[in-house]
Design goal:
By secondary structure, the protein is α/β, with parallel strands linked by helices. The protein has 2 domains: 44 residues, no CATH class; 196 residues, Rossmann fold. The protein is 37% helix and 14% strand. Strands 1, 2, 3, 4, 7 and 8 form a 6-stranded parallel sheet that branches. It is globular, with a radius of gyration of 18 Å. About 2% of the residues have low confidence. The structure holds zinc ion (2 copies). InterPro entries: ComF/GntX_DNA_util-trans (IPR051910), DZR_2 (IPR044005), PRTase-like (IPR029057), PRTase_dom (IPR000836). This is ComF family protein.
Length: 246
């Protein structure tokens, strides 16, 4: 297999999925990774940094470096315990996620997954055992796209954390409009009742790590967390590769 791959790389040298630069010029992300993004593009992913809300993860444009809860979280505490993301949803990371989701470039998860996995290992300091769950897609959407990008990412995260992965117990039962196309108020209504827990025993008393590709307002994660906690789960932590910045 290695030889065939080596030959294929000579005939069709791999290029960065974002900027199209030949990848053999740059260093690898890590050795066992199949190459799909160059170091320059990855270095351009904009990190989310403090000050931010320690609950929902929204960053503040303030100079004061102290984290503090945002207005939305103070008014109504979300069902999840924390939501964190390494990158702001703009520039090359937005491009990469778009290509992964809408360009059917599922191999991009091989480069993006380890980035999310490393970030999660650093940020989620939970001593107990976690159960990793991707935010589910409606079966119709899975058929359209061919895969659930959150599941592809969750596989890497679960592997990194040596946690169990469960992508069957939580289901999306309602076909909803993409959150990005809706106004703030409509987003909450859009996902209400969209998820169902098919197996309560799987989550009972467990600390859950929910994985998604992008968080826009946090309504989707919040609705999943509501359903999981109603079903008897313990804490719910959320991680996503990117977060839309207001
Ligand atoms: Zn590139
Ligand atoms: Zn908040």
């Amino acid at each position: 297999m290695k030889l065939i791959r080596g030959l294929a790389d000579i005939i069709y040298p791999p290029r960065c999925a974002i900027c199209k630069q030949f990848l053999w010029k740059g260093p690898l992300i890590n050795e066992d990774n199949s190459l799909s993004l160059c170091q320059t593009c990855i270095a351009d992913f904009r990190h989310i940094s403090s000050p931010l809300c320690p609950i929902c993860g929204v960053p503040f444009p303030s100079e004061i470096k102290e984290d503090h809860p945002c207005e939305d979280c103070l008014r109504k505490r979300p069902f999840f315990d924390t939501a964190v993301a390494p990158y702001s949803y703009e520039g090359p990371i937005l491009e990469a996620i778009h290509r992964l989701k809408y360009g059917a470039k599922s191999f991009l998860a091989g480069s993006l997954g380890p980035l999310l996995s490393r970030f999660t290992e650093e940020r989620i300091k939970e001593s107990g055992h976690l159960l990793t769950m991707p935010v589910p897609l409606h079966p119709k959407r899975v058929r359209e796209r061919g895969f659930n990008q959150s599941l592809l990412l969750a596989r890497h995260v679960a592997k990194g954390l040596k946690s169990d992965l469960d992508f069957l117990s939580l289901k999306r039962v309602r076909y909803t409009l993409p959150q990005t196309r809706l106004a703030k108020k409509e987003r909450q209504r859009n996902v209400r009742g969209a998820f169902q827990l098919k197996n309560r025993d799987a989550v009972k008393g467990k600390t859950i790590l929910l994985v998604d590709d992008v968080v826009t307002t946090g309504n989707t994660m919040n609705e999943c967390a509501r359903v999981l906690k109603k079903g008897g789960s313990g804490k719910v932590f959320c991680v996503s590769l990117a977060r839309a910045v207001r």
